[in-house]
Amino acid sequence: MAVIRDVMPAFQLFQPTSIADAQKLLEQHAQDAWVMAGGLDSFDWLKDRIKKPKALVDLSGVEELKGIRTINDGIEIGAMTTLTEVVRNPVIQQKYGLLGQAAELVASPQIRNQGTLGGNVSQDARCWYYRAGWPCYRAGGNICYADTPVGRNREHAILHAERCVAVNPSDSSPALIALDAKFVIRTPKGERVVDAEDYFIGPDTDITRMNILQPGYLLTAIRIPSTWAGARFYFEKVRDRNVWDFPLMNVASAMVLSGDSIERIRIAVNGAAARPLRLKAVEDAVRGKPRSPATGEMAGRLAVQGAVPLQFNGYKIPLMRNLVKRSISGVQEATWAS
Amino acid sequence: MPSSEGKPGPQKFGAQYKLIGKDYTTPDLYAKVTGKSKYAEDFRADGMLFCKLLLSPVPHGRVKHLDLSKALAMPGVRAILTQDDLPAPADSVTDLGAVIKANKQGEKALTMEPLYQGEPILAVAAVDEWTAAEAIEKIDIEFEHLPFVVDPLDSLRPGGPNPRQEGNIWVKQPVPAAQPGGKPPSPPPPQVGELKWTAADFAEMKEGRLPMGKAPDEWSYGDVDAGLQAAALVLDETFVTPDTSHQTLEPRTALAYWQNGKVFIHMGTQSTVQTLAGMGRWLNMDPNQIVLISEYTGGGFGSKATGYIFAIIPALLSKKVNAPVMMRISREEEHFIGRARPGFQGRMKVGFSEDGKITALDMFTICNNGPYDANGDANASGLVVSLLYQPAAMRWRGLTMLTNTPPRGPQSAPGGMQGIIIMEPILAKAARKLSLDQVDIRRANAPEGKALWGPPRDGKRAHSTSAFLKEALDRGAEQFKWKERIARPKKSGTKVRGVGVSSSAFFAGSTGYDGLFIIKPDGRIAIQSGIGNLGTESISDVHRVVAEVLGVPWEKCDVEWGNTSKNLPWTCVSGGSQTTHAMTRAAHAAAMDGKGKLREIAAKTHGGRPEQYEVANERVFRKGGGQSMTLAQAAQRAIQLGGIYDGHEAPEDLNKYTKASIAALAGQGLVAAAKDKYPHDGQSFSYVASFAEVEVDIETGKYHITDFLAVADVGTVIHPKALGGQVLGRSILGIGHAIGQKWVFDPQYGCTISRRFHHTKPPTILDVPVDMRWAALDIPDPETPVGARGIGEPPVGGGCGAILNALSDALGDEIYRRAPVNLDTILTSLEAGRPMQDPLTAFI
Question: How far apart are CA B366 and CA B155, in angstroms?
Fold first, then answer.
């Protein structure tokens, strides 16, 4: 049968106004349901007719899922809060600026006005073979088109590849991991709260999914504890264009110094693997060390240990090395004025 | 950070004119900014159907099984159009009466043997797009897979695959001998043939150099070998340029319906009048039976010069179902059918004297053409290089190779741009090797005055009408503070900065078209514009000349455009940067005709001789005082006089198209019409000197463009704001080629994997400095009455060249070997200490 793209197929549209209703719909339609937040990821899939859900559950009318609240220890951000709201929130700006910096570098202003934090962390891979509907591992097939001798894989993984070499394209996720955020998930069996880094999964766990959400699950909120409030933050996103581009790689770190030495630190990178990577070994290695260029260099080298380049993405190794270094010892800025 | 140092105040132009060189409110402005302007997609017609296309999933194949029954049985589906419904390709007749034979191997609107992934196979018309899409998914279609190739070098290898069953290259066919006493026969169309190189030809490829086997197209002048031998420095460089989609904001959407045997087509096209012939040829219809409505066009850049073949799909479907049909083209469809600049695999051997003069230049280009009609980019690249760098001796060789990739089309400075960006990094490297200043080496090789270009024809090389590139380089160096900038420190922290300068030029004008306007009995001037409204404002800019010459306020002029039923004059193609030059000439000619007729009417009315009368301030009056008449009175008198005065007769030398328009307009007032017959000996080119500064972060490879200036030599400035928009806008088009725009294919499957904007990465406005600057010399061209030339294309090569040169100034010559240059290229090359980019493979 012939294929056509760029015309949205028909589906049943549900627009619940409460979490309870949304959850009921998701349970009712189970495998047939598609959860839509801001729609930036969903509409691509739908318009291309590659994903054809029977029921679309549009969360845009669920007010409970929106907004940023102060809680006992830190803040709670509703999953449907837009990235623009995250960027503009004064508490985030003052205490959790790392997330604000990351959110502000997502795509373009228009996309940040529509895109949500929950959507940004839950978005699918952007591998151009997978997104074009090629029947690859991630799509349930038994081949990876990007990892062939001539596959075009400039934007693909250097770490933890397992049959699939796609990367996670989220900018907010590494910031949330560095801030030790907790993801609040409603499941048919009740609420589950998981650490940010445990929300994401690689192909070794499930090659067709990017996170732990199962049919019937709903990410409702992201909590940021005060543990890292006001810490020294570093976020950098490297992309081809200055706006409206996915990261080739990004890095996020939160650090607390004691004198000159690193008392505690969390570092995460994205764009290197199918899930945002928390660099636990690097954190352990630099803890107690002075925050110096030498520590940064050491951290960078350690971070890329075990990295395996594909034909066109070898640059990601020095890039990750340098980004991790900068996330610890900073950037040596130019002294000229302009 | 943007810098405002040295920023000049707004330049003033046209001191001797009232309107020329001045900004004004264009007649389409309010509609555009308020959204009232109607593009093809904005139109609706009673009972209108929609159609969707079934595109080929394979790069080369043949439909071996097709079952439409389930689709046709769907409620709401009205018709399916296939290649069987297409008219036979028609011959075309040039303006001079020469017949161009139709090429049966040329592109068709629909095909059962697709030659690229994304080629339209069939179209379904239904009550809405959703139904049409569902119907397409119900079509049972199977393809026989045929050999394919995306990289020309693969096809040139011994035993390499051919993109078409007949071969991989167009081959010219011999012209049959003329019958004694008969007219010379029309040359037969070229045929697809096969060209393979030998294994020995490919030996150099291992060294990263472009192999140079047999090239069917070649020209030269001077003694190239002697020039290279005498050179103090010879550089031999291979460079790959990107394939870049036009991706106009308005895709190739079209609406068509039939009334009284005529087909009405709403579409976006660069040229209004000149699109009729193309549509007529593709529909195999008399152009008189076609009405084209195109008041607004969302960009063309060469891809819609005279419309596009796919607009016949809704026209033919509409005829088949007897209802209006709208074909909306999606972004992905536009990627496939919307044309692109052909990428080059190029190599140049250039000899320099110690003072940087080019002693000889040996240029070799392979143009990746896609599967259909040959683009002229390869040859144009040599011609522009021969003009812009004035080598003492030059040889150009070229191949235009067919591949199973989407068809290319001319894109702003087609070929010239690719030639410039192959040459510019070589010139920059030579300057470094010879310890010469970058501006000085360009000055030393710049064309000047009546500069020679191209190979000799009939023993003589052609010349440009004028060239003030040296003045543009000087003005730019001063405004950009070149000397100060190159003396500043280059490295600080993780940042390295560099400055680059590039020369740029392209063809900028044609001649011989018609101007037409009417002085109405109420004294207003109705100007007929056959130019397309492609966003450059030339549609009204050129007609400012009429008001200037007649001494009429612009507010009294009404411009009619965008509909071929509105009696328009024969007009140039709005492509090749011709319009400002060609149509200011035509406007001037018509204005002089109008002026002459006004004087004659005054003399007939008030006595005396026409030359005793003067035209100014909306009056025609006797010199030194006495009788006068208003233009309104003269127009009324013209209607009484009839004949040549009110259009009941028309000058013999006008194009028949203009004559038909005049006949339809006759009696409405004083009809002024004339063909441009002003002398013109050289070829018109415009020139740009482009300057850029970049700042590179050596730890990430990411760079930012921190400053940009372009100085244009375009003759007389007609409309400063529009000129500035073109100079900077087209510079950005070029910059896109340097900083990231490209196509990516998977060679194993022959399929495009860069289908969307976030893959092909056209530049965004945040990728260029916020205060990009431009200037213009405003020196009139000596071979045209108003002195104005075109500007759309000349800035493109310079935009790219200046960035590439700024990068090598910052990082050295051992970084890149192709464009675009992205952070991955920079980072890996810096890590390795040598160029790490794959030197030759297409589409990485």
Answer: 12
pLDDT, tens digit (0-9, with 9 covering 90-100), for B724-745: 999 999 999 999 999 999 999 9
Looking at residue B2, its pLDDT comes to: 37
Sign of the C-alpha dihedral computed for residues B304, B306, B310 and B314 taken in this order:
positive
Q: Name the residue among B395, B495, B488, B503 with its Cα closest to residue B443.
A: B503
Whether A207 contacts A164, CB under 8 Å: yes
- Looking at residue B837, its pLDDT comes to 83
Mutating which of A136, A310, A319 best tests the B interface, going by the most B Cβ atoms within 10 A? Answer: A319
The total number of residues shown for chain B amounts to: 844
pLDDT along chain B (844 residues), means of 10: 47 94 97 96 97 98 98 98 95 78 94 98 98 98 98 97 98 88 84 98 94 97 98 98 96 97 97 95 95 97 96 98 98 97 98 98 98 97 98 98 98 98 98 98 98 96 98 98 97 98 97 98 98 96 98 97 98 94 98 98 96 96 92 98 98 97 98 97 97 98 98 98 97 98 97 94 96 97 96 97 98 94 96 87 89
Give the domain A12-61 fold. Answer: 3.30.43
Contacts of B408 (CB under 8 A, 6+ apart): B243, B339, B340, B341, B342, B368, B369, B370, B375, B377
Q: Is B328 near chain A, with CB under 8 Å? A: no
Task: Say how far apart CA B56 and CA B337 lie, in whole Å.
Answer: 12
Q: Which of B689, B104, B64, B685 is nearest to B387 (CA)?
A: B685
Residues of chain B with CATH 3.30.365.10: 514-675
Query: What are the distances in angstroms from CA B71 to CA A137, A177, B295, B317, B326?
Result: 32, 50, 36, 16, 19
Residues on chain A touching B745 (C-beta within 8 angstroms) = 152
Going from the C-alpha of B213 to that of each of A32, B219, B364, B415, B739, the distances in angstroms are: 58, 16, 10, 21, 31
CB atoms within 10 A of CB B474: 17
Measured CA angle at B303 (ends B300, B304), to 5 deg = 65
Nearest residue to B770 (alpha-carbon basis) of A243, A335, A114, A235:
A243
Are B135 and B77 in contact by the 8 Å Cβ rule? The answer is yes
**CB contact, 8 Å: A333 with chain B?**
yes
Give CATH superfamily name and number for B41-146+254-327. Aldehyde oxidase/xanthine dehydrogenase, a/b hammerhead (3.90.1170.50)
Which pLDDT does position B9 carry in this prediction?
58
Give the containing element (helix H, strand E) for A292: none
Q: Using CA atoms, how far apart are residues B573 and B564, in angstroms rounded to an integer?
A: 14
Q: What is the pLDDT of residues B603-613, one digit of tens each?
A: 999 999 999 99
Alpha-carbon distance of A152 to A155, in angstroms, equals: 8
- Measured between CA atoms, the residue of chain B closest to residue A237 is B700
Q: What are phi and psi of B645, to 5 degrees?
A: -75, -35
pLDDT given for residue B836 in this prediction: 86
CATH no., domain B514-675: 3.30.365.10
Distance CA B504, CA B499 (A): 17
- To the nearest whole angstrom, how far is the Cα of B227 from the nearest Cα of chain A? 40
Tokens coding A106: 């997502």
Inter-chain residue contact A2 with B333, CB threshold 8 Å: no
Residue B501: burial class (beta carbons within 10 Å; 0-12, 13-18, 19+)? buried
Domain residue ranges in chain A: 12-61
Per-residue pLDDT at A338 exceeds 70:
no
State whether residue B619 is helix, strand or coil.
Answer: strand
Query: pLDDT value at position B1?
Result: 34
pLDDT tens-digit readout, A100-119: 999 999 999 999 999 999 99
Chain A residues with CB under 8 Å of B130 CB are 7-10
